[in-house]
Amino acid sequence: QVQPVESGGGLVQTGGSLRLSCAASGPLFRIYDMGWQRQAPGKQRELVASFTSGGTTYYADSVKGRFTISRDNAKNTVYLQMNSLKPEDTAVYYCTAKVLRRDYWGQGTQVTVSS
Known about the structure:
- This protein is mainly beta.
- Helices cover 0% and strands 54% of the residues.
- Strands 2, 4, 5, 6, 9, 10 and 11 form a seven-stranded mixed beta sheet that branches. Strands 1-3-8-7 form a four-stranded antiparallel beta sheet, with no helix packed on it.
- It starts with a strand and ends with a strand.
């Protein structure tokens, strides 16, 4: 059973930083394609960043240069370092894991950036 569990959300001022963590269970973490998506009220869900098992990373244009995704396969964990946060980054952030053609989602963690 693959079950991503996020942590690290919270309230931060504009310009601040947060680091989200996501631990995903299962002995095959190294082959999971991991990602972070977010959804703000009234907006469509957005893929923020991803890190494939092969080492390819992706960033949405809106976060390039500010967010960094990384993974530690030994700890079954993926991270999202978020710097220079803006009010428009306010959203629920979801960790996703894709393996063997199935997608798994975490419960989400709230990130709120105050102006």
